[in-house]
Amino acid sequence: MLHGVGRGENPDGAFYAFGIVGVSILIRAMLSMVAGTLGDAASATIPGRLDQLCIGMLAAVLYARRRGLLSSHVLVPLAVAMVFAWIVSPTIEALVLAAGSLIYLQQS
What we know:
Elements: H1 13-35, H2 40-43, H3 46-65, H4 72-107
């Protein structure tokens, strides 16, 4: 086994993972501006899902290093918040898009 590989010894690893997540978001934002939609680029391609891979890797590092932090009294409210966010995300998206439309109309 290579030194440091698989044991979480690279202190810069999380930095790079966060960087990949940021670049992925930036690429999706640019695709959305250029093409008007993300379509298959965000869901059916490896680059479109690369941020999810990195977030999963960061979650694994968090689990390996801070098991006590992830007790049930932390995870249950987090899970409830995630379900709530998933349910209301279309509404939040609609509010953001409506605000953007109103700003655009106000400028013209």
